[in-house]
């Protein structure tokens, strides 16, 4: 099909193989994980070089056409799909070069279309660790994880995507190339443009490549699932473990027992991972990374102290790599088990870790008042204060559970505001939370953001309608 | 003395005790460590509350008067003193509140006028570590170290000031307050304004308070001074130590033997700290931090491996806290021993660690061509690629050594550019390097910085002439 004007020029820039306009070809760019956003797009392009990305943006700038940057299309807040349908989608998925793996400086330079799993493998081949790990790691790509500052399960020890990134290369609204790749651990030469582009969800520039940190590979992991009485006990356990294990504590995940019940019910796991001597409603999935020079059995020492202090009723230790894989699979299934069970209402929020128990008491109570019998399934990265605070419809619930979403969101975000929490801990704002951000963010901060957006994207063509409402 | 118009209003805002206009009272705000900048100022004010800072900025904004924010006045590039003499100095040194020390979240909320040493002590009282450590820690203050993104000797394990900061509160050009204090480890709600304000040297906003990270206190340190043959061996040693010690490696400083010779000569130290069996021209000051659960003697294991591999000729171990203090004092004396010896020409630069040997070969050779007999004294944070690359006048040199500075700078920065290094690793740009930045920085990055500056400070009243030339 011949593209409609003014896209002849765009077709010429990217070539036919990289120009996608008919409905079938567009589907993979438009369908996103939760199926919440259904706008179309004028077309999608898949440039194969940074130069080509620049030309696409020059074209878009001249013609004032809005552009939605996209890489793995795994975002959960509609940041990577159109807001109006008049946009063109600029997919970075064909920027696939590994430009360098430097084991001396421990930095890899990767283009935006490399998946996180591939990045992990490149590091592993160089006997290094790329610590970013999250559910969608097989599909999500460097461009996207940086644009959303993705988190994952090892933030506690290694930080989020922002912390793992030393510099970016990005195409600006008018097609100019910001050359910010860097292997410098220290560089105080002006404003921190890297951190401005990271987490900006493609609204200030399009990240085409990044310098990503690597770390020494742990020689072993020690992993256990602890039975604990309550989230409050979880906070106490965290403090003790962090003190004893320092930076070797790489994961500290809070898991309510309901998630494992559901996984068994829906056959997502076939073996119950929980220790059975003293069943509890709550669990901590705890992992230590051991390096050369660390003695085996560090975790055992920690568990003995926790048992002595009567904080942990029982625990299930992983004794093999297989055990560990199953444990982490179980952790990742916390989203899927909800899909299989019932309708759900979700939040991705964070507070200071000591405020987690208060948050949970108050949010659970508020939700119960709104929908008696509602089933909270609040889980996730307790060690960094980030809870995926989801609710399942009550057992046997009939009707449109999602109709309660506005009321439950409102109650949750009000409690969160009292605790100075974040309305988006790791998924970003996208389309989903742009209105919410406008209500909840410090108005001065919002004004600063708007000024910066206007300064760097005066025609508002970079992912409009995301983060900031125009 | 009655202040001249239009300062009546300013005097009224801050009160007489906080208004400083006569020459004597101004001295302490105007004299900076290296005595390079000699402009005056209209006056200095020392507001005692954030509200008062806001009112000062409202006044400055209305009257279009330029403001130089200052805290400890220890900066080395003229960022904290006036560029024209028409500015008013706004000292944050009376914002002295410790707003909170939260040991559960490991965050302290400190006002801008708290010194780094005080911050260390507050953390220590709470059985925590505030790891920032640098020569001027007794005087430099939170506002300044964040505005310059100061580094120091523990960047390797803990990062620079930016990494230690979770959020800031800042007064903007028009007096509005940006409320960005945060104890959230994860918060993806829009642009990263914290990191934009940190390192902006007071040109985008005035930091009045910050949320600073604390860490578990190490239970012990293991410190040694290694004799090595060359910087290249230093790189090899670094890779081995990092692999073996992981995050426990907190300092890795390169020290040429000349610095210790000079310290003995000028009686800055009374005991030679170097191991004598196999003298070398180069040394590494290495420190491991041990936490609960770490075995003593980790360093010995490392040293054995280094000896086996014939990388380290001999080493001097610190066997007491006193030994360690003396060793670090010796490290800190690397600036002072130059002052006592001769005129010097200095650079604060960084490259990827593997490029340090090339950098040093080429820069030394270039400097020798310019001034035969010139004495390089290149030292510092090798582990993060940051070398304080200084040169002393040749022995017996007479005349104006500093006259060679432009030529030596030019040669150094040209070599640095080839290696993609940074012209300012940790001291910032200030006035000293603003022209250099304009020449060396990626022009697109410079344009982005100018756009952001214009967006957030349209009247150019926040520390004008620093970082960006107007």
From TrEMBL, chains A, B:
PROSITE patterns tied to this protein: FAD_PCMH (PS51387)
Domain (FAD-binding PCMH-type): residue spans on this chain: 37-217
Entry keywords, A to Z: FAD, Flavoprotein
SUPFAM superfamilies according to UniProt: FAD-binding/transporter-associated domain-like, FAD-linked oxidases, C-terminal domain
Sequence similarity: Belongs to the FAD-binding oxidoreductase/transferase type 4 family.
Designated name of the protein: FAD-binding oxidoreductase
Organism this protein belongs to: Maritalea mediterranea
Phylogenetic placement of the source organism: Bacteria, Pseudomonadati, Pseudomonadota, Alphaproteobacteria, Hyphomicrobiales
């Amino acid at each position: 099909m011949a593209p409609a004007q003014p896209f002849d020029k765009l077709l010429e820039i990217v070539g036919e193989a990289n120009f996608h306009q008919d409905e079938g070809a567009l589907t993979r760019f438009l369908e996103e994980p939760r199926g919440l956003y259904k706008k179309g797009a004028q077309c999608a392009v898949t440039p194969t070089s940074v130069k080509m990305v620049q030309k696409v943006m020059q074209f878009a700038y001249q013609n004032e056409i809005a552009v939605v940057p996209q890489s793995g299309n795994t975002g959960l807040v509609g940041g990577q799909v159109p807001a109006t349908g008049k946009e063109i989608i600029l997919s970075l998925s064909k920027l696939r070069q590994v430009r360098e793996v430097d084991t001396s400086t421990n930095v890899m330079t990767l283009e935006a279309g490399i998946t996180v799993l591939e990045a992990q493998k490149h590091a592993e081949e160089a006997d290094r660790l790329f610590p970013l790990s999250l559910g969608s790691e097989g599909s999500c790509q460097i461009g996207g994880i940086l644009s959303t500052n993705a988190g994952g399960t090892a933030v506690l020890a290694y930080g989020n995507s922002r912390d793992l990134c030393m510099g970016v290369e990005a195409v600006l609204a008018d097609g100019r190339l910001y050359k910010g790749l860097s292997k410098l651990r220290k560089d105080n030469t002006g404003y921190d443009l890297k951190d401005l582009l990271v987490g900006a969800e493609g609204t200030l520039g399009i990240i085409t490549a990044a310098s990503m940190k690597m770390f020494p590979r742990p020689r072993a992991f020690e992993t256990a699932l602890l039975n604990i009485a309550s989230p409050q006990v979880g906070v106490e356990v965290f403090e003790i473990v962090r003190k004893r294990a320092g930076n070797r504590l790489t994961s500290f995940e809070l898991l309510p027992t309901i998630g494992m019940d559901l996984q068994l019910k829906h056959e997502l796991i076939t073996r119950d991972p929980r220790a059975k001597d003293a069943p509890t409603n709550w669990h901590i999935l705890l992992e230590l990374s051991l390096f050369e020079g660390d003695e085996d059995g560090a975790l055992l020492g920690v568990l003995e102290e926790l048992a002595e202090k009567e904080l942990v009723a029982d625990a299930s230790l992983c004794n093999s790599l297989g055990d560990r894989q199953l444990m982490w699979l179980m952790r990742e299934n916390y989203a899927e088990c909800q899909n299989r069970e019932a309708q759900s209402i979700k939040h991705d929020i964070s507070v200071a870790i000591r405020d987690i128990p208060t948050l949970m008491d108050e949010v659970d109570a508020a939700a119960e008042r709104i929908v008696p019998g509602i089933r909270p399934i609040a889980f996730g990265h307790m060690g960094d204060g980030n809870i995926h605070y989801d609710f399942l419809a009550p057992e046997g619930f009939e009707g449109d559970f999602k109709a309660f979403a506005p009321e439950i969101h409102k109650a949750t975000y009000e409690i969160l505001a009292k605790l100075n929490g974040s309305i988006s801990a790791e998924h970003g704002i996208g389309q989903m939370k742009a209105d919410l951000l406008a209500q909840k963010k410090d108005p001065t901060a919002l004004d600063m953001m708007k000024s910066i957006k206007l300064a760097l994207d005066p025609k508002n063509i970079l992912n409009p309608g995301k983060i900031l409402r125009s």
